[in-house]
Specification:
It contains 1 helix and 22 strands. The chain is mostly beta strands.
């Protein structure tokens, strides 16, 4: 219908214009007498706003005004997509040591890794051919992005031509117990978002992937580095996998890979789930293909939702505690080591040692120099006891490692 024009009693007019909508819409006026609203009438204050679920969804979200005497402004960021709702106030990052701060093994020293060797805590090096790259906390001693003091760096040692069955990458193995809320492998699989800072001496399209424990479900992804030797922030949204087997035990739940050079046998199309063992994407830049090339990463975060939130900074002690579930280095103040609860040099004795935190599984114990554990009687996820005959001290020295990695 046409517009409705209401003439004023003196001068002027009010025009009611039909909206451009489809369907039948009804505007109901309240049963009132007198003036309902004038130009200078303040808008009514709202104590709460309720948002009903969209489409066929059920449930709602209510925003309630706080009981305050001051004027407060809630500003929403300019973004699109869905904010993370689970664990939004803390512990939302599935990655452990994503800011590359904990390095119990190497204390910042460079390593030329063997396959599956760990560099900094929770980050392992994969390689099919030895001595093609080095890994190090703060490799190259460049300034990290604002808000960070550490990063993990990989440096190529030669110009290696990657064969079809070659693989080179940095990887974190995420425990299945930490992804139970994702519901992957079911119709209720949740979307996740990966975010990180990266820097390379090369430019172009780089790759990586997420995989299940059997490596028979893979989601290859790409990201672009536009300017050499400059930190850039990347975000990648990954739809939850409704197929395959995804462990929710203390086994491997998710493999997160950052490609340093992978052969065609391990590369697939980006942005889709595949029933294959893909480490990266076809055509991704090979770091090991250029001598001296570098790839640095830090601020790695993996969270539910379609929007990357700011990196979750944990206290140092919290981060160390999470890392020690998988790897612990014993440090003692006594040069002779730690004797445990009991010990005897003249008669038979026992020694009990309790780990800093419960381990993922019963660990492997490698003694430091001078350590003595003649017979381990009981070894579990919380600690162990050992028995020593007369004249022997059951002893753990500095440098003893307790390993329960995935």
């Amino acid at each position: 219908m046409a517009d409705i024009v209401l003439k004023g009693n003196t001068s002027g007019s009010i025009t009611i214009t039909s909206p451009d909508v489809s369907g039948v819409n009804v505007l109901t006026l309240p049963v009132e007498t007198g003036t309902i609203l004038t130009t200078n009438t303040p808008l009514p204050e709202v104590s709460s706003v309720e948002f009903a679920g969209a489409g066929t969804s059920s449930g709602s979200i209510t925003i309630t005004a706080p009981d305050t005497d001051e004027t407060n402004t809630l500003t929403f960021p300019e973004t699109t997509g869905t904010f993370a709702t689970e664990n939004s106030l803390g512990m939302r990052n599935i990655i452990i040591n994503g800011n590359m701060q904990i390095d119990q093994r190497n204390a910042g020293a460079s390593i030329t890794p063997t396959d599956t060797q760990y560099s900094i805590d929770r980050w392992t090096c994969r390689l099919s051919t030895a001595s093609k790259y080095t890994a190090q906390q703060n490799a190259g001693a460049v300034t990290p992005p604002a808000g960070f003091i550490n990063y993990l760096g990989a440096t190529s040692t030669s110009a290696y031509s990657v064969g079809s069955s070659d693989y080179f990458m940095l990887r974190q193995l995420i425990e299945g117990s930490n992804i139970t809320n994702l519901n992957w492998g079911t119709a209720n699989a949740k979307t996740i978002t990966l975010s990180f800072w990266t820097r390379s001496s090369l430019t172009g399209t780089f790759g990586g992937s997420v995989q299940n424990s059997n490596s028979d479900r893979s989601y290859p992804f790409t990201y672009t580095i536009s300017v050499a030797d400059t930190w850039e922030y990347k975000t990648i949204t990954i739809s939850g996998d409704t197929s395959g087997t995804w462990l929710t035990t203390n086994g491997i739940g998710i493999k997160l890979n950052f490609d340093l050079g992978n052969g065609s046998s391990f590369n697939g199309p980006a942005g889709a789930w595949a029933g294959a063992n893909y480490h990266s994407t076809t055509g991704a830049t090979s770091v090991v293909g250029t001598s001296g090339a570098t790839l640095y990463i830090t601020g790695v975060q993996l969270e539910t939702g379609t929007v990357a939130t700011p990196f979750e900074n944990l206290q140092y002690g919290q981060q160390l505690f999470l890392c020690q579930r998988y790897y612990e280095v014993v440090i003692t103040n006594d040069s002779n080591g730690f004797y445990g609860t009991f010990g005897s040099g003249s008669g038979a004795g026992y020694s009990n040692y309790f780990y800093q935190t419960t381990k993922r599984a019963a660990p492997t114990i490698v003694l430091g120099a001078g350590g003595t554990l003649p017979t381990i009687q009981v070894s579990g996820q919380s600690g162990f006891s050992s028995y020593a005959p007369a004249g022997v001290y059951p002893r753990i020295n500095t440098g003893t490692t307790i390993t329960s990695e995935l």
